[in-house]
Give the backbone structure.
Amino acid sequence: MMRTGVLFVAIAGSITVGSLRADSPPALPSADEIVARHAEARGGLEKLRSLHSLIYRGAYREGDDVMPEAAMAVMRPFYKLVGDPEKPDPTFAEGYDGSAWEFYGDPGIVVRTVGAAAAAARHGLAIDGPLVDYKEKGSTVELRGIEKIGERETYWLRVHMRDGFEEDEFIDRQTWLLTAQRKVAPIHAFGKAVSTETRFSDFRPVAGVLFPFADTEVEIATGKVLNEMHWREIIANKDLDPAAFSPPALKRTPLQTLIDHLFMERADRESVLWSYYEFRRAYPDVDSDKGMQSVGYHILKMGDVPSAIALLEANATAYPRSSGAFFALGRAYNTAERPTDARTAFEKALALDPANKRARTALDAMAKPAR
């Protein structure tokens, strides 16, 4: 699944990169001069500002997972879709239409995200990148020095966004194009923050503006490749309905209505439990196991850990033969830093279903010493 791309939490100033070279010229251009040259190299401000919408289509790889038909779209003033606006995916989509959202076809839910998940969505909204017209976007940019990326010398610019997130942009000193980007963020919803570097290549013109058609993100500490993207096409300025950037309208069943209510009540543990037990009393024959696993995960991802644990404990009690119920509970315990309880739940999940790969992976991860 494309990680939108992903889930980003900034750690200000925590990236350690090279300092100004001793043989650098005494007078460097200012940050604004570099940004201006960068915009000119891409095609000029007029053409950049004339971009109204972009549709990206290509192939995405993350580990052993390959998406040969990956897609993404952005549109002014603030629209974003991880998916194809002309070919909606009935199983999954995420985006931003004024606020961040995620859609899951099974069990059929839409969640409006906050925290790291919402940050990951909003940080990639700019159709022309983070540098062009950065002041209007509420950001500041400072020149940190000169850094060598591969064999190329680059200007190192730090972008500080209005929500406190920081990322580093590296502009080639000869071409004035973006060579690389560095940031610190979790790779997955419950992962630790990781310093990564994304390198850009294969620049081609689209509507008179140069875009990189390939990028590779690696973990800086280990050099491990995290993901690779190769765009087959980038389509500019196609008229798109803003509704394409919003989640699909759902005709909700009683179970889906409960899921909506629980997600909205997530900050109040007692309300979550009350709604859950009232539903179970009113609809005793409805199988709610997978639905509670799903909404429990999303409540956990939003940071409302007590509510998630309470709901998933109740679900595991209601479905004592469900391996998935105990895996979900173990993940919640693990997030709450309750390793003994987490291990017990994962072991129960594996005992109920020896083929539960997620439970096995979770137990193996707990056995490894922290780096």
Observations:
- Residues 1-20 have pLDDT under 50 and may be disordered.
- The longest strand covers residues 193-206.
- The chain has ten helices and 13 strands.
